[in-house]
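Run log, item B.
One chain of 351 residues. Sequence copied directly from the ordering sheet:
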Amino acid sequence: MNAKPCLFPLLLLSLMISASAQDHLIFEGKDGPGKGKQVVLIAGDEEYRSEEAMPMLAKILSQRHGFTCTVLFSADAEGTIQPAAGGSLSNSAALDKADLILMSIRFRHWSDEAMARFDNAYKRGVPMVALRTSTHGFNMKDGAFKKYSFNAKDEWAGGFGKQVLGETWVAHHGAHKKEGCRGIVEVLNKDHPLLRSVENIFVESDVYTANPPADALVLMRGQVTETLDPASKPVEGKKNDPMQPIVWLRERVNEAGKTNRICTTTMGAATDLINEGLRRLVVNSVYWGLALEIPMKADVSYVDPYAPSFFGFKTERKNFKVIDQDLGKALPARTGDDGDVRPNAVAPKPK
């Protein structure tokens, strides 16, 4: 009599694969100009809901443009997203093969192993697209990578943000959660290909104070508006004189002699990315970083429905799993929340 095959090893392998897949997402690139390129997206902040924004961008980049995208999170062993876990970075090994890094991080303090992988990618000359709080993406109290910290001193004053991206944390220039930001193209650079079909940018996150270095090419400035309504008027007075840079580019030679192409924007809350112009700017930045021809009008339509949460501390979705944002899964609208959390895509009432 033939013995029945033992199913236990197969079951164990299946469970192991499931467990390893829950703390990050991989979207294989379809046909498109990005075919064969690996984009690693990092979601890691406590306030601006990058855990909702990064999967949405990854779906667009993979399904509309052909890039293979891996999304990394701050998550626990069960695959539950933990935005405030600043020491967590899932599947950091993906950084070893990154052709470009798209990040939205804030005050992270990853392990030396994860930091070494990030540092190696930087020194390989990997292009980087950095959103919102990535200017102050690291807060290292000590260790081998302390110089990355937003408040670092000495030879890397201002840390990774200031030295590489072009700015660290300075201040809110607009009133947080009260005054919005309208994107105004820098006239001298209006024909830059990265700005192709980038129009009508208005976001709810306020303008940051920013003073990028002389080698930065400023593409857009932020006009502070009276309210979070896209139709609101510019505030009067000094806040718009001068207007702060909100998008800039650098081509920086790093310590290993490699050149990193860098696009930094101080916009990028999950609700900001409802704006089609901002989504197109981010997608165009990926093309620019990889030295690919930028489309005349990149397709930035959503792949799955997107209903992001308004920004704020401790406003993350509860028991929110990484796998909940896999391909084919919508980001559901939130209703009935209190405090800073509100129904999605609806501006809060002026105070």
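Observations after the first pass:
- The radius of gyration is 20 Å.
- The domain at 18-169+245-325 is CATH 3.40.50 (Rossmann fold).
Flagged for discussion on Thursday.
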